[in-house]
Amino acid sequence: MDTSYRVIATEVTPMQTPAPMRERQLNVRLSGDEGVRFDAVAAHYGLNPQGLIRMLVKREADALGIAAEPPKPATKTKKPAK
Questions:
Q1: Contact predicate 41/78, CB 8 Å
Q2: Distance (Å, rounded) from C-alpha 3 to C-alpha 61?
Q3: Apex CA 24: angle with CA 66 and CA 56, to 5°?
Q4: 76 lies in a domain?
Q5: The overall pTM is greater than 0.85
Q6: Are 12 and 18 in contact (CB under 8 A)?
Q7: What is the pLDDT of residues 46-75, one digit of tens each?
Q8: What is the rounded distance in angstroms from the CA atom of residue 47 to the CA atom of residue 45?
Q9: What H or E segment, with its residue span, contains residue 59?
């Protein structure tokens, strides 16, 4: 059974930020045992693979006191004067 996942942001659910805001792509290959555990944990939380990884990383970062960079505000470009 192939349990490898290609983790990329393609879906947007209410808990996720839109894909264009993500710059990095992560590819993960899992062994059979890892894939079974991964699927079971993701199903337990009702998440897709991307959401599970984000949740676990955020949980660990919070436990370590690592703050995320605040999002950069959108900037408006000024139209050139005529």
A1: no
A2: 27
A3: 45
A4: no
A5: no
A6: yes
A7: 998 888 998 999 999 999 998 877 767 767
A8: 5
A9: helix 49-64
Number of domains in the chain: 1
Mode of pairing for the β-strands spanning 5-7 and 26-28: antiparallel
pLDDT in tens, 26-40: 788 889 999 999 999
Domain range holding 57?
5-64
Question: Are 20 and 10 in contact, with CB atoms under 8 Å apart?
Answer: no
Q: What six digits make up the tokens of 62?
A: 């919070």
Q: Distance between CA atoms of 55 and 16, rounded to whole angstroms?
A: 11
Distance CA 9, CA 50 (A): 7
31 within 8 A of 3, measured Cβ to Cβ = yes
Instruction: Tell which residue, 18, 32, 29, has the closest CA to residue 71.
Output: 18
